[in-house]
Amino acid sequence: MAVRLDDTDRKILRALQQDAGQSLDEIARQVGSSKTPVWNRIRKMREAGVMGPQTVVLDPEKLGFDACFFVLIRTSEHEAEWQAAFLHALQNRPEVQEAHRLAGDIDYILKVRVANARAYDAFYQALISEVKVHNVTALLSMEEIKSTTALPV
Predict the structure, then answer these.
(1) How wide is the angle at C-alpha 16 spanned by C-alphas 13 and 21, nearest 5°?
(2) pLDDT (tens digit, 0 to 9) for every residue of the chain, 153 residues total?
(3) Domain of 32?
(4) Does 19 reside within a domain?
(5) How are beta strands 96-101 and 135-140 bridged, if at all?
(6) Does residue 83 sit in the same domain as residue 136?
(7) Residues 86 and 126 in one domain
(8) Is 32 helix (H, G, I), strand (E, B) or coil?
(9) In this structure, is residue 147 part of a structural domain?
(10) Does some domain include residue 149?
């Protein structure tokens, strides 16, 4: 269920999405308010679950994670036991940045960050040793054109 937000809330969210580390004074200046009302709005939005934990966006290439693979998975298994094992396997793999269950011909898509093709192969071998999959297609991203976590609030 969507939470009702006014224009000031949306301005605060845009400022936080741009840089959550900026001061309350700076956010208040950007949204045309003072610090205390901005803090109260942020607290209320956190309590309502609009915002999750604050994190830092790291540069994967500067940390040696040069390869980004999109992994398309088809499975012939759809039982709850298989799904639980698959979910467990994904949650225990730090290389998996995103995982989505899809409608259509492909059952799952994963976004996997690794150092190189050899590291991807190690990930792949470990995954298929844990869970049975029917078909796996790995697509190497040649260039990241756009990446954001920001929502259009």
Answers:
(1) 160
(2) 889 999 999 999 999 999 999 999 999 999 999 999 999 999 999 999 999 999 999 999 999 999 999 999 999 988 999 999 999 999 999 999 999 999 999 999 999 999 999 999 999 999 999 999 999 999 999 999 999 999 999
(3) 7-47
(4) yes
(5) unpaired
(6) yes
(7) yes
(8) coil
(9) no
(10) no
